[in-house]
Amino acid sequence: MAAIRGKNTKPELIVRKWLWSHGYRYRLNVKSVPGKPDIVMRRFRTAIFVNGCFWHGHRVAMPQIDNGEMIIYNSECCKIPKTNREFWVKKITRNQERDQQNYRILQENGWYCIVVWECQLKPKLLEHTMQQVELQLNQNFLSIYQRKPILFSESENEYLMVAEEE
Predict the structure, then answer these.
(1) Which domain holds residue 63?
(2) Is the Cα dihedral 39, 103, 115, 5 positive or negative?
(3) For residue 110, what is the enclosing H or E element?
(4) Is 64 part of a structural domain of the chain?
(5) Whole-prediction pTM value?
(6) Of the candidates 33, 38, 52, 32, which has an alpha carbon nearest to the alpha carbon of residue 95?
(7) Distance between CA atoms of 81 and 28, rounded to whole angstroms?
(8) Residue 122 located in a structural domain
(9) pLDDT, tens digit, for every residue of 52-69?
(10) How many other C-beta atoms lie within 10 A of the C-beta of residue 53?
(11) What is the number of domains present in the chain?
(12) Where are the alpha helices (DSSP H) in the chain?
């Protein structure tokens, strides 16, 4: 497992290339942001995590003990190996718990989280997935920088307008 890269993975490069070509600028693997997200967009206060389906257990129902036997429901994109199954279940479960904790900490600090899964970056789904990411980024931007209406009290009528006669 020492050969498994945590940075500059192929799915991450696909997302970065799409964002850059559409004019979005970002920082990579910022250690000061909790959870060390793959892509950080400070202007949008958004952390983007590009997760591998296997390592983060995408759509996998974790074990249910039935008569002392582990039952795991695999998904199309993530299949838990049958050899050394207990190790993999513990590892993936820990990854999922850590992910949830990181997302919660970021949200408590006013950050938005976007998770892009490896299976969503297949050529047929790429454009739709990235448009969804772009839509979420724009919504985040508006929620941060949208002007709040100023409410005036009724005592405003006491003052005369500039061009109004006395």
Answers:
(1) 10-158
(2) positive
(3) none
(4) yes
(5) 0.79
(6) 52
(7) 31
(8) yes
(9) 888 888 887 766 666 666
(10) 19
(11) 1
(12) 10-21, 85-108, 123-145
